[in-house]
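Because discrete structure vocabularies remain unfamiliar, we first show an illustrative case, written as a sequence plus integers encoding its fold.
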Amino acid sequence: MKNTVTYALALVVGAVMLFATGMPSAALAAGGVATVKTLDGEATIIRGDQRMPAALGSTIEQNDAVETSATGSVGLLFEDDTQLSLGPNSRATIDEFVYNPDQSGSFVAKLWKGTLGFITGKVGKTTPENVRVETPLATIGIRGTSFVVSVDE
């Protein structure tokens, strides 16, 4: 189990490091809050009753879930430059994302299982009290930082 967690953390940290190149946010489709920027293996976007394979450039909407396969990892870049990465066998939902460049915003995601890496964007820098990552057992309040968290099934 420890090797699996170490491997998953390495993949998530690697995906997060890909974002460190300073890539600007992409233009998002209407209703979109994030874009798939990195993808290794298979990942699925779940929107309501629809399951769609994730691809580079796929749009993520509020209330979408993202799942990765046993060998998959995915990196999402949000409109405010928040970066969220999922390692293998992970599932997360984007419960709330509001970004107004001249006003406060909010971000709430839930990690149901697997490994998640997170680097705050503009919302986390301007209104950190409105940014949370939840797990089945805990809530992580964000105060302008980066972290990795793992949830066992």
Observations:
- The chain has a mean pLDDT of 83.
